[in-house]
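Problem statement: downstream parser choked on a complex file, so we are re-checking the raw output for the zinc ion run. The parser issue turned out to be on our end (a line-ending mismatch), but while we're here, posting the original submission so the record is complete.
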Amino acid sequence: MRKIILALVGVMVLAGCCKQAQPEGVQYGFVSISDVIPDVILDIRYYGTYNFVGAKVDGYNEPIALMTGVAADSLKSVSDELLAQGYRLKIFDAYRPQRAVDHFVRWSKDVSDTLTKAYFYPELAKDRLFPEGFICARSSHTHGSTVDLTLFDMNSGKEVDMGGTFDWFGMSSYPTYTDLTEGQLAMRQLLRDAMMRHGFKPFDTEWWHFTLQDEPYPDTFFDFPVERKSIVR
Ligand SMILES: [Zn+2]
């Protein structure tokens, strides 16, 4: 009997050893934002070519938005509040793998490639983007609790006018920029107030960028790809 029990324990230990490691996104509690907030509109720019790189960015294998579960839950509260006022959240990016950030840096150092200049940085020389902090070697998006978003107006059926577009490299992207119409300022304020009421903090240089104040992994630079496999057991 004793031998049988020992054998059984041995099998259990072996089974434990051989068990497949869970995908990193599962281990760390990441979710797909659309699973938590079905009403969200996704426009995952780094999966396509309508972004400052002008090409699909490394690590974006599917057009989905991943985030830590706690951040997604807080974003759900923002969405519920704004839906009641006639707006949906439109998300451009959330969790971003380190390999994507590395791709941005590589792109910024190739000054001969100015394919997207007219759309994203007409006022700046490309070799200023990295020194002036528009492109950085580290991003809070890599910690998994940051999101880039705007509002979609259900009455007009259009994205709201924020007086500037996502990933525009210039002063008008600063939340402190005030040379805007009353309507534009009001829309920026509406988004910012709702995000802050539900635990997100704004960012100095981008009106569309918010990070969960109590983010669970402030010092971890994740690198698993943006794809459903990363969050499925
Ligand atoms: Zn951002």
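For whoever reads this later: Residues 141, 146, 148, 206, 209 surround zinc ion (CB under 6 Å).
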